[in-house]
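Suppose you are handed only these lines of text.
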Amino acid sequence: MSKILDIQDVTVSFDGFKALNHLNFAMEEGELRVIIGPNGAGKTTFLDVITGKVEPTEGAAYFKGKDLRKRKEHEIACLGIGRKFQTPRVYLNLSPRENLELSCNRQKNVLATLFKQTPPAEKRTVAGLLETIGLDYKADIPAALLSHGEKQWLEIGMLVAQSPDLLLVDEPVAGLTDEETAKTGQLLLSLAASHSIVVIEHDMEFVRQIARQVTVLHEGTVLCEGTMDQIQNDARVIEVYLGEEAS
Ligand code: ADP
Ligand code: MG
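From them, the structure of the protein bound to adenosine-5'-diphosphate can be written out as follows.
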């Protein structure tokens, strides 16, 4: 197996404050990794380093052996890293089908995509994606009419439409109902069959549903890694989370 991500001794300083502090992290191709940690632990900054939004002050970051430090955000996206932000970014006046068609055609002209016939192969891809994200029965209504959860799934579908090798997903179930949360878990598990995925999440029930390997971040560094059972019984993790509840 080869490493899809290799983060070596990365520090990110904001005016002297270390949002990441000598962080080391590695992940194999095909893994589904969940990252948890209290507020301010550095989880979002960690994703910012991978996507090139933030440059490490110290250390090195590699994606499939390629140095990410000197690459711009769009170059990193082209290498095959797709990121889903917390709030859905879908075109509300377009239908789920049209949103997915646009994502399949990112490199082509947007207007041409909307007004020309979609080639048969792409139609199949879009139909398959609609099924995967469970929106085939709402494919042609405006996305504005979708629930928050359905918009999240649509955005995950739009990400997958661009065929990234690595999916980065930041807090996908915040604000979702229990039922939507469970469906999101199933969706990520099904995508994990063909993608490497990093999921950042707070919702422990959800983490338990999808987690294989879990990494716990605390104060900008890795506190521990392991299965959900190992994590939950780790004295350091218990202390960090109880400390958060107490404050
Ligand atoms: P998490 O996502 O785990 O809640 P973040 O990565 O957002 O944590 O933030 C880690 C720490 O770094 C926080 O204390 C936050 O206030 C700080 N931080 C994040 N981004 C910046 C920035 N651009 N400038 C200064 N401090 C920042
Ligand atoms: Mg965050």
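What can we learn from it? The first strand starts at residue 3 and ends at 14. Residues 14, 17, 19, 37, 39-45 surround adenosine-5'-diphosphate (ligand 1) (CB under 6 Å).
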